[in-house]
Amino acid sequence: MALWAKLESLSNKGRKRKDAGDLARQGVFLSACVAVSIIIDRNVLEQYIMPFMPQFIPLWMLQLFLLPLVMYAGAIISGPSEEIKITRGRRRYGGKK
After folding, report:
1. What is the pLDDT of residues 76-88, one digit of tens each?
2. How far apart are CA 66 and CA 45, in angstroms?
3. Residue 41 contacts residue 15 (beta carbons within 8 Å)
């Protein structure tokens, strides 16, 4: 995704994207979350967590919720990338300036 954004910014077609670094960081973050989810799924989930779960909760349901939980925990641990600032832009459809 970062390479695509960089290539698009080099060409004059389409809107220019300046967030190639953000896309690279997001890609690394998601890749790390997927790797942690796979490790937890293969080594921890079935051996240590399934014996404590009720019989009516299948393994696939835990696997389904594992990646979003790892992403949430990773977002809390890593914190925000930068402060979000909302700036006031131009008005498009007339009105007061």
Report:
1. 998 876 676 777 7
2. 9
3. no
Q: How many domains does the chain have?
A: 1
What does the pLDDT look like over 40-61, one tens digit per residue? Answer: 999 988 888 888 888 888 888 9
Q: Is residue 89 part of a domain?
A: no
Q: What is the DSSP letter of 14?
A: S
Residue 73: domain span: 2-78
The H or E element that residue 35 is part of is: helix 20-40
In this structure, which amino acid lies at residue 3?
A: L
Residue 88, in any domain of the structure: no
Cα distances (Å, whole numbers) of residue 30 to 18, 35, 43, 64, 72: 20, 9, 20, 16, 11
* d(C-alpha 92, C-alpha 97), whole Å: 10
Block residue for tokens 């004059």: 12
CA nearest neighbour of 35 among 61, 71, 79, 1: 71
Decide if 53 is inside a domain.
yes
